[in-house]
Amino acid sequence: MAKKTNSLEDLGGFVFSTNKDFEFQDTNKIEETLDPKDQRLEAHLDKKNRAGKIATVIKGFQGAEEDLKILGKELKTLCGVGGSVKDGEIIIQGNFRDKIMDFLVKKGYKVKRVGS
User: Fold this and answer.
1) Is residue 110 over pLDDT 60?
2) Order of all β-strands in the sheet with 55-59
3) Is the pLDDT of residue 6 over 70?
4) Following CA atoms 56, 61, 65, 71 in sequence, which dihedral angle do they give, to the nearest 10 degrees?
5) Per-residue model confidence (pLDDT) at position 20
6) Which of 52, 94, 101, 116 stands 20 to 30 A from 83 (CA)?
7) How is residue 91 annotated by DSSP?
């Protein structure tokens, strides 16, 4: 029996275009990750939408999603806490900004402290 599809994503995203000048652009390009020395990261402390609990948020990473997830895992392991990687940000539970900044500087990243 054939598999039922529910959206364009199930069909690969692109099906048909009536525009004779249309050029297909592959959105699955692998984004190249910049070297750590070329990265400009920002370290934030955030309480919004977290029931008053503090989280350390790292923003500004430029590169592949997979490399961002690997860096997020390293930071979670370093701090011994949970966290997540989403929307191009690394979110670490708790106030570990200084510890994370030291770690990132040792890895070669340029990190800016944002906020108080």
Assistant:
1) yes
2) 83-86, 89-93, 55-59, 40-46, 110-113
3) no
4) -60
5) 78
6) 116
7) E
Strands 83-86 and 55-59: unpaired
Domain of residue 92 covers 33-113
- Does residue 55 fall inside a structural domain? yes
Token output for 112: 């800016």
- Please state, in angstroms and rounded to a whole number, the distance separating the CA atoms of residues 61 and 59: 6
45 part of a folded domain: yes
Give domain status of residue 16, yes or no.
Answer: no
The rounded distance, in Å, linking the Cα atoms of 86 and 72 is 10
For residues 114 and 44, the answer to whether their CB atoms sit within 8 Å is yes
Tell me, what's the pLDDT at 28?
A: 60
pLDDT in tens, 53-105: 999 999 999 999 999 999 999 999 999 999 999 999 999 999 999 999 999 99
CATH number at residue 50: 3.30.780.10
Instruction: Please indicate, yes or no, if residue 71 is contained in any of the structural domains.
Output: yes
Average pLDDT across the chain, whole number: 85
